[in-house]
Specification:
Layout: H1 2-37, H2 39-42, E1 46-47, E2 62-63, H3 90-95, H4 113-129, E3 153-154, H5 156-160, H6 163-170, H7 174-183, E4 185-186, E5 197-199, H8 200-211
Antiparallel strand pairs: 1-2, 3-5, 4-5
Helix pairs in contact: 6-7
Length: 213
Amino acid sequence: MKAFGKTVGKTVVFCLVMMLMCSFVYPLALTGVSQLTMKAKADGSKVDKDGNLTTDTKEAVGSALIGQDFTEDCYFQGRVSAVNYNTYTEEQKESGEYAGVASGSYNYANSNPELKERMEKDLEQFLKEHPGVKAEDVPAELLTASGSGLDPHISPESAEVQIPTVAKNSGLSEEEVKKIVEENTEKKTLGVFGEERVNVLGCNLDIAAAMGK
């Protein structure tokens, strides 16, 4: 019985020590190191209007990791977002209508008629905004929602199909817009993992700068 009591005591002590280490010491140490070595990234990779990482919230125009909705036709559009990229107004926040950070997709099954209806509506709107583009040339990702609803990237193909419209409405040449897309295209990780992707915010910041905004 005495041996059993010692075993239980050691087990309790071990659990308490591990809880302290894993719940407090490790997170605090990790937070401290990240704040010292990569503060801008640790704070959310916020970006200023020049495209540089910033720790000043007042200067931030977005995040390199979080997508946002661009409504002006001189800018590139990102993927469909079920949570509208988690945007909200101060009024919604104060009234409680906005309950906090949101992330997620529509979760429609392929057989769901609402999915077909939404995609057809979005396709119609896209073709209206991008005259000259055929329905079969529109990449599926521009009509389907990302899993998080916060995706900041599109594929090079999704950027390419928008170049003529962006160039026309921004006053830039298609060559200038293509160059901007190339400069904001992130390659495969280690040249092998993932896919090439275009950061929408990066493209639009460069377009705004080229327009003198």
